[in-house]
Amino acid sequence: MASGKRENEVQGHGMGDQIEQVDAMVLQYQNQKLIQQLEAQKAEMHALEGKFKDLRDKQISYDNTLIAVNKMWNQLVDDLVLFGVRAGGELRCLQALEHEDFSIDDALASCPPEEIFLCRLLRSGYVDKNRGSISVKAVQEALSLRHSAIVDLMKHLQEAIAARLARNELLASALHGNLSSEDAIVQLRNHNGYLREVISNMREAIDVVHLKHNRFTDEISCYIDNHSREQSEIKHLSGDLEESMAELEESRRKLVILQMQKHGPSFINASIGIAVNGSISLDKPADKTMSWRELKDSVDEAKGSNFLSSVLSPFLTFSNAPSLLPTTQGAILAVINAHYAFEKPYQSHLRLKQRPHAY
Predict the structure, then answer these.
(1) pTM across the whole model
(2) Does Cell membrane appear among the keywords (predicted)?
């Protein structure tokens, strides 16, 4: 009975191990499937990011083109309005001189990103809240309204020019004696009143233009002030950055010195790359038979650098004996070679190689 129980227990353990192996294989298979799905999603995400970047670049190009076209369009409207005033037209068209600034994005905050172009084109930030987008009918109505406004300005200018030509013909007839004296006097008086009205209208138009000029001047002054302030902030931040870099360099040097003082000469071969910004390769072994006097002379020549003196000072105090261990000799010579490779790449290195060694 006991042996049967043992066999049952062994079979039970075997079945449990097989179930665990099957579970592990299932989990591994599911993990592989999940990894494949994750990789596919990553690829799709990268593709969508590329498409989004392309669309964003196109939108920026469209927006820049639209801003340039609107500037020229607004200039055309201003010219038509001012020409109409000079021709003796009414002042009702002066309201057309007030244009919206299409380079300001705050007025377009209500527009979704994909419809900013249409919002700028329609000179409106209105979006249908029920549909969440601009309808085709609204686009057509806005374009029709803008087109009709330009047509009205053109008609107003044509009417003003026609009225001016008719007045000039009557004045020419009066001056050439084609009219009676009474009619000529009436025409001159009428023309005098007309000129007074034209002058008054031109003064009002000039006042409007002056207001726009003052507004633009204030905006330019604000921009110049902001630019100067930003430049001063950049200069201040640059100074802070330089100070932080200097403090970081000093802290790095102190850290190297403290680590070498703590670990001794065994640390220098690992930290010498850090001491010279990680740009020096110290594969060449030091001469183990160099005498203390020659090594001391090399150290004295390299004491021109404060950093090198601070690095070597713990080893000079630590190794004051005439005969140094080979590892200590190699460590000090490695510091010297690293210093010359970092600051004086060739001259001092050649002097060290030409100096005779003591055997």
Answers:
(1) 0.45
(2) no
